[in-house]
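Example 717.
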Amino acid sequence: MNEKDAEKRIKKLRKEIARLRDEYHIKNNPNVTDDVYDSLTRELKELLKTYPEFADSNAGENRVAGKPLDKFVKVKHKVRMLSLNDVFSEEELFDWENRIKKLLGGGAKLDYFCEVKFDGLAVSLIYENGEFIKGATRGDGFVGEDITENLKTIKSIPLVLKSPFPKYVEVRGEALMSKRTLQKLNKINEKEGKTLFANTRNAAAGSLRQLDPKLASERDLDFYAYDIAEIRASQPKNFPGLLHPSDGTFPEKNSLAGLPVTHSNKHKLLKNLGFNVDKNDALCKNLNEVISFIKKFEKIRDDFPYGTDGVVISVDNLKLQEVLGVVGKAPRYMAAYKYPAEKATTIVKDVKINVGRTGVLTPLAIFEPTSVAGSTVSKATLHNMDQIERLDLKIGDTVVIEKAGDVIPKVVEVLKNMRSGKEKKVKMPDTCPVCDAKVEKKQSPEKKNSSRLLQPSAGTFRAENFSSPDSSVAYYCTNKKCPAKNERYLEHFVSVFEIYELGPKILRRFKDEGLITDAADIFALQKEDIATLERFGEKSAENIISEIENKKRIPLSKFLWALGILHVGEETARDLAIHFGTLENLISSTKSDVSEVDSIENIGPAVSKSLINFFQDKNNLNFIKKLEKNGVVVEKMEKKKAGKFTGLNFVLTGTLSTMSREIAKEKILALGGKVSSSVSKNTSYVVAGEESGSKLKNAEKLGVKVLTEQEFLNMLG
Ligand code: IVH
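Predicted structure in complex with 2-(butylsulfanyl)adenosine:
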């Protein structure tokens, strides 16, 4: 990126960040998650590091977000309400420590106070002579809104402090809605057709920043205290501002003769005054202890009753806090460790086209590498052109990526506001990027049941097995001998056979050396063939051969999957194997009567057509023969031991209340029964859940017995 582009990007980022801040802090209605906001802010910070000439002390990133609302009386904070600087990794945490240690000089030894970072609404509470007199929001940090009446409805905000209390104290903390309360509230809102709150923060803020205290009281909010901004004991003259005794000693517990000298003292005092403070909070002797705290809390975070977004780490000693001071909007002596984001933003640098084993062309987005859920992501499949159109994704776009199920990164949104106008449209090529043959557009099969597509099995991800549920058009390379298809096919084949020794590089080498021309040749390899190759020794040759030998037996379901038949992925292969039991049965069925394939639950006409095409092709039958000749043994699908459903044919229809249809199907199969998708005179039972449609009518027409869910459950036993 050159300077000019950087300047433009910085401007765009500032504008979008400001817009998001506005949505978040003022309207309490963000359209994106905090992760996205954080990610953009981070990019801006990085850019400003490289191009400090564009830094601007008046820009949004240097100001505390939020603006007081007009509808409330404004309150000028006596002590500014600050924000926190974020750190996103252990490395950044150590950087922070290095910076502050340098500033403090003399090899200072620091204790750190660690506390949960609540995700609610920051508020400030003023108590005079032990009595709650005023409560305000943060606003822009200098001026907030007076929400005293609303705050009084929160039971965990004491109206009177426990004695002994100071003459004057300003307490800072977070007003919160528990996750359970939010769930309940959203359920009600849903029933009443009202908008749902996106998270506990918005719900808490929305409840407090409205004018009717009655409404606030219905919301069942909580308050946790985390700081004291100002405290005065009985002799105010001696204790101006945020104080601590100048000799740095802390007198006996519960005594107000002296005031806190450490952040942990403050927490203790807050607790003694009658506030909630989180019991996870802990004093740590060094950063390693801090990291243990972070890891420990991460484990229980999901079960924690309130929404949290990290851990706040403070230099415990207040004197040192004062020395370190505040820069911009945030204190130097505190850091907010943020847990790895599930979502992040990045820029699409390019969209490459991959050719898969079935010849399908798959677009792959190449990103500016970014960190999501703890690992670096630099590419993600876009599945197909439909997906690109749905997202309206262009090369150069800023996108939100998410790591679904912690494994596969995916693009979930394009941030159109971040466009510069230079973005380029993605186009499918007319010719194959690998062999230059013509590319053909084909309709993808209709899936009868798309849910399976959302669950690729772990470690077996391939773009073509994971097309989006409603994909409709796909582009294929028309060259049967396309080298990309061939190579991808070999890779697919060995991965299904679990021959891990044969990675893509070795396969390509074997091909180039003429050791293999197709996958069947793999099983005829001899140790000497490999050992004589340059860079392959006896030992590695032996390992490869012995692994191939061990993997020669394969269950029918996997074998069918390995064959790479168009539209037959792992799940479909399993359905076919369960239904037919042996390869011979399947092949002869495709020769005579296709309707048997059609009738299998989840399998549609596109699959049966593809099976016929595949098994009618002599080359494919010869390939299977060659595999068997070279020692591959296809194991029959273990027929389930005859169970009480043996010989019975079920059709499932409608929604079952106690289990999904997938589970019901598994249970029937386990007991020896079969499940078909359509009702015929061969059907023994139709299990009718709620909202059963045409299948139920057909059953009645054909006189097939219909079971209610309860009757079916009784049969299962
Ligand atoms: S300490 C200097 N402790 O996080 C202001 N803040 O991102 C920080 N927050 O405005 C005060 N839990 O609303 C502190 N245990 C905690 C916190 C916490 C949540 C919020 C607070 C602050 C924001 C900064």
